[in-house]
Automatic annotation (TrEMBL):
GO BP term (any one): fatty acid beta-oxidation
Domain 3-hydroxyacyl-CoA dehydrogenase NAD binding: 305-481
Entry coiled-coil feature ranges: none
Lineage: Bacteria, Bacillati, Actinomycetota, Actinomycetes, Mycobacteriales
Record flagged with keyword Magnesium: no
Keywords: Fatty acid metabolism, Isomerase, Lipid degradation, Lipid metabolism, Lyase, Multifunctional enzyme, NAD, Oxidoreductase, Peroxisome
Organism: Rhodococcus koreensis
Protein name, entry field: 3-hydroxyacyl-CoA dehydrogenase
Amino acid sequence: MSETTQIVDLSPTVQYEVRDGVAVIRLANPPVNGLGDTIRTGLSAGIAASRDDAICGVVIVGDGKGFCGGADLRQFGTPAAVVKPSVSEVFAQIQALRKPVVAAIHGFALGGGLELALVCNYRIAQTGARIGLPEVNVGLLPGAGGTQRLPRLIGTAEALTLIQNGATVTASRAAELGIVDYCVTGDPLDAALTFLSNSVPEGSAAPVIDDRPPVSRDGVDFDAARKAVRPSTRNRVAQLAAIDAVEAATTHPIEDGLALERAAFVRLVDSPEAQALRHVFFAEKEAVKVADIDRATVPRPINRVAVIGSGTMGTGIAMAFANGGVPADLIDQNVDALDRGVATIRRNYEASAAKGRLTTHQVEQRIALIEPSLDLDTVSSADLVVEAVFEDMTVKKEVFAKLDALCKPGTVLASNTSRLDVDELARSISRPQDVIGLHFFSPANVMKLLEVVRGEVTADDVVVTSLAVAQKIDKVPVLSKVCEGFIGNRMLSPYRREADFLLEEGATPERVDHVLQDFGLAMGPFAMSDLAGLDIGWAARKRLAPSRPQHLRYSRVADVLCEGGRFGQKTAAGYYRYEAGSRLPVPDPVVEQVIRRCAQEDGIEQREIADAEIVDRCILALVNEGAKILGEGIAQRASDIDVVYVDGYGFPAHRGGPMYYAQSLGLQEVLRRIRQFEAVHGEYWSPAPLLEQAVRDGKTSFQ
Ligand code: T1G
């Protein structure tokens, strides 16, 4: 008969009970059992209570979704972060217990959560749990022993790969690697209790990782690993620190290695990069919350999707759903286009398999989820339809009219438009409440960002459904209301305007691109235009030409290049020239001549332009437009705008996004610089009212 004591609360977030002489310490700190102050005090109390001779072993288990998601990032920089005992002090108490301690893992054991499991003697994980040390993703390195203990447990090479990439593995892979001792399908707590009662002989010396000597280098070339870290990567500093720390595990006794790791962690934790990356982490989590929709709103079930159009976007979108395990019909009434789309899908998946990102089985699984169809009637079985046809309102309205007639009631009708008026599209059919914009970014099967464009009459549950399905297919959704260009592309307009103006004032495409890539942009505006195609912007400018204010300065450079058939990489010439088969941008004197001629005809003086002005003119143009978007209620939060630019436009995550960057400069300073540009360049630079108000109110942030 099992003897179980009452469950007692050792702290607000840690419970304790004894079952047949085994102490069960339960972490209960929603949402992810982060190693906050009350977890640490509770764990410490639980270990102290387990020193009692009546206790023969300990199991640590997590309540809720998982074992432990690591340090409580919300407490960083707050008084709670320094409440004793520290994480390493609690870990030392666990190791000093000298009784078998088992980590019973379900859901996830990440960061400090895995580090907690590594100071236990045994680790038992439930199938499906995610396990890893993802600290570099938030600009840190494992700071509670992970860089010293994981290499000692699984070898230097495997440990370095996991730590440097911030990757996670499944419980079964973790068992193969030796991170966990057993992977079980049942309740890991039951498995741990059984293990302790059956498999751990009384008094046996339970394995302690710290007792192991420094590990071999495993053939790892640490200098090469350091050189391979791209200068532009968002978490470069953290990756380099992680490589150094893992190297220390091969050269130093563990005490010294832990001290080196700790020192590196302290250096990183308050660094601007780590703070910016933590901002992005939380901003992505916040973006899915909709302030004015009841959180109890139930999403519509999405079991099958139909994608209309098998061009670049359509095939990418179909792959995005297949990647998330959602069956998708890929519909195109042109047989050649459909064949090309199907071939593109197979080619893309096979390329991923060739790079080791997918197994051939996964490739076939995903391809099997995508059903090509020539028959538009196929949409009748879809719960969500995404049209990705030609970016023209008339064409889209024709498609929506057919969907209105063919789709079952309650089907979510989405347009992948990148800037057209979703409200106008909604008004053209009988069920406008079911219409929403799902603006995927190319390549849609890769890019994380998904702008969810909420129309005036879009039903709340359609919004909630769209956000939920976005998360299911591993996208980062950001809600936008309807305006020309929504959030991202609307901000791109002034950014490109300033870049174009800088050309006429004396900068070159390669200079502007270089300066902005140095700032951290994944790609400069002109190389980006050549990649995306100058003809797309040209079509938009022609559409908007009738409404363009004639009294405002306008750069004709892009139009002249397009009139000359220079559409970018697709025509081997745009702002740059491209040798046959190459995507390498080569500066082209022809473009220089076009720029000079346009500037001369428009009476624009050439001058020396400092790098700082190039950055300010382009980046503060983004910020000012972002503040206008926020002020108009198009975006819910400044941090949403940051997510759009970091996850959709290559803005450097280690700078937090355009709005976070502006806040780090200081809003007063930002307004001062914008007013300077307004004095020189006129109303294009009229400060956003929300920015002026924030400065008047002495605020340090846009919210
Ligand atoms: N700290 C604080 N809050 C966290 C958190 C964390 N580590 N992880 C998640 N949250 C919040 C998140 O903001 C959201 O809040 C809610 O939990 C649900 O998150 C010492 C120093 C664990 C796999 O990097 O990967 O340990 O919006 O929607 O899909 O060396 O969250 O609901 O208010 O993602 O079930 C290292 C990051 C930290 C793990 C759960 N750990 N988190 O996924 O839920 S540094 C990580 C995740 C560290 C040590 C170092 C995922 C998850 P809200 P969610 P989920």
